[in-house]
Amino acid sequence: MAIKSFFSSDARGKAREAEQSSRLRYGGLDFLTSAIIVLDEHACIEFANASAENLLDFSLKALVTQKFSGLFKNGQVIDVLFAEAQLRQFSNKRLDLILERPNREPLQLHSIVTVLLDDPRTPVILELQEIDQQIKMGREERILDQTQANRELIRNLAHEIKNPLGGIRGAAQLLELELDNFEFHEYTQVIIKEADRLQTLVDRLLAPHRRPHLVSDVNIHEVCERVRSVLLAEYPRGLDILRDYDISVPEFRGDKEQLIQALLNIAHNAAQALRVRIQAGDAHLTFVTRIARQVTIARNRYRLALELRVIDNGPGIAEDIKERIFFPLVSGREGGSGLGLTLAQTFVQQHQGVIECESRPGRTEFKIMLPLP
To answer: pTM to 2 decimals?
Structure first.
């Protein structure tokens, strides 16, 4: 069951009044990192804090006065809990829940259900925490530490390679001039071309550290549209690129070209993974933008953040490289350089953000999180 998308003018007014009243009464709960849902005596949502809005992907205005169990396909689980609460069978109860959402991934939650014995009008408060939240935070910290270590390793290694590489190429050119037998020029050309190839690779490794950070106002949807147009030019048939934009996402300060390159690297990798489906004509790539509230990125807490997701219906990432896809020179594609995702992560981290990835056969999702002002 979907949230109601429209109301009569009278209903809209009542919903607005209910939202304002609940914010006045429970606004302090917005500062909590756990998702808090306050249910009234009819099991309808009286208040949802910012973390709950982010978890459920709906605003308080859309949630208030809605029956909480009606948001889920297996909402009877909530109805049973609420009935027990009304009968005062417990004052505090902890349990794990799997709530199934229409057309969305199910929510795996640890819940704390509290009954307010002295307030029959508001009998139940639900505190919800995603079970995998701690796992995600730990993984994010590992990615951050690994990326910093990789960055230093790449920079030092590239400089160590660069100097002798120039000497090798110069020596091959001089040797070619001294050779009277033109048949041997084939060998010197191999040396020169391979040296040039390695030079290009080194330049790409050093590119994020050399290029200045050009900051301006960035509209994330302009970034998405630029990348979309590039991909459609490369794949005019067989690839359907869908857009699910939240137009309320504000502009922010950043390096637009770096963000375009980061998103293009991710989306281009996805398109290459979809090559079989593109040939079959049923490849789908989706760009989703949302505002996330009260989130932690790279060990820092932010009130608002941009959540940009790139979702494809490809075969998924191979298990043997899934945990190493952001490492340099790791590629799941024959002939791939293994630098695209490394550079994307570097560019995003230069904006105090992070990239996460979830993958299984039939669905791979890259999620970029960037703090908003």
So the answer is: 0.57
